[in-house]
Amino acid sequence: MPAPLLLHVFYSFETGGAQVRTVTLMNSLGGRFRHAIAAINGDMSCAARIAPHVDWRSVTPRGFRALIREVKPALLITYNWGAIDAQLALLPGRPCPALHVEDGFGPDEARRLKTRRVWTRRLVLPRTAHALAVPSQTLRRIALERYHLPAKMVRYIPNGVDTERFAPRRDRELRRSLGIPEEAVVFGSVGRLRAEKDLVWMVRRFAEAALPEARLVLVGAGPSEPEIRAAVRDLGVEKTIIFSGETADSAPFFSVFDAFLISSATEQMPMGLLEAISSGLPALCTSVGDCRAVLPPAHAPLAVDRDQPAAYVNYLRRLAANAEWRAALGRGNRQRAVAEFSLSTMVDRWERLYLEALGMSPPPQQQDENVP
């Protein structure tokens, strides 16, 4: 009997947190499931990360009702608002079970949720989806309080990280290939260069910190790159900010950084932050989503409110000046990642949810009464 076929519908299958997590699950679960992936905008760049042993294919969404009839998935999984139309296509007959996954919001909802979208989720998801899965407590509260979904339908599954792949190490060769002096303190960011990441804000804070011996490495590509490059030129920091470009494997870059930065205007539980703390790096964040909760309690002040840019600048200077403090923060972050955000726990929880939605029983060894 063939493995159950999961149809994943994304607005874009570019390299982002939800897409990377999905690939991680596909790779980890191996032959337990087959997969079809639909990217509404045609961007399938994250597929480069899928392991050769995974049974998967790309499908074109010419119309979601027709796509579901053609693919005949055992389970439909939609991701974020951009794919909500695929949930609507299940009405009125609900030809297959479904899950919906929310990872956060775009810049248009960074400050306020759009009423029409709230009502659509409120009305549609209880009629189409077995569950709504979210990686952050912030999103869980929104689902309960704004979407009015029943508590049993909302599943909180924190993101997880491969703590062996993302472990403390140094890559001096990669550092040299980026043109970074041996003595420089390196701050780094990893992720798509998108508006909600607000890397212009980060560049401005880095320029204000006035750290001529330090470097800021931006790993990734995306639509905001021209705007970020313009800010770098206007601020006169071209010599200290490095654009590495897109990469299929971000892990080596964490071995170049001395500290990790986030400047997002909206975020939930960023994979890059988990990868950074697992790599034993100190992390300086904006206090969006669950970023503060991800860090050890003693490190909470390093999740700075966006309306306090001076505090962010002050922490940049302190991190650049104090190697012992960086090392102590990094050790605490590593311990937190290993204890709280293991990859195996995340994979087990997602597999359990897939099987539950399919009406199948999860393996006995994966039963966990403490899973929300």
Task: Jot down its keywords.
disordered C terminus; Rossmann fold; 2 domains; 372 residues; alpha/beta; 15% strand
Structural class: alpha/beta
Q: Which stretches of 5+ consecutive residues score pLDDT under 50?
A: 365-372
Strand order of the largest sheet: 3-2-1-4-5-6-7
CATH architecture of the largest domain: 3-Layer(aba) Sandwich
The total number of structural domains is 2
What does this structure look like?
Strand 4, helix 3 and strand 5 form a beta-alpha-beta unit. The longest helix has 18 residues. By secondary structure, the chain is an alpha/beta fold. It folds into two domains: 181 residues, Rossmann fold (3-Layer(aba) Sandwich), CATH 3.40.50.2000; 169 residues, Glycogen Phosphorylase B (Rossmann fold, 3-Layer(aba) Sandwich). Helix content is 37%, strand content 15%.
Topology:
Layout lengths: L4 E6 L6 H13 L4 E6 L16 E4 L4 H8 L3 E5 L4 H5 L9 E4 L13 H14 L2 E4 L2 H9 L8 E3 L15 H6 L8 E5 L8 H11 L5 E5 L5 H11 L5 E5 L5 H4 L4 E3 L9 H8 L4 E4 L4 H4 L8 E2 L4 H13 L1 H18 L2 H15 L15
Parallel strand pairs: 1-2, 1-4, 2-3, 4-5, 5-6, 6-7, 8-9, 8-11, 9-10, 11-12, 12-13
Helix pairs in contact: 7-8, 7-12, 10-13
Write a brief structural summary.
The protein has 372 residues and is of the alpha/beta class. It is built from 14 helices and 13 strands. It folds into 2 domains: 5-160 and 342-366, Rossmann fold, CATH 3.40.50.2000; 172-340, Rossmann fold (3-Layer(aba) Sandwich).
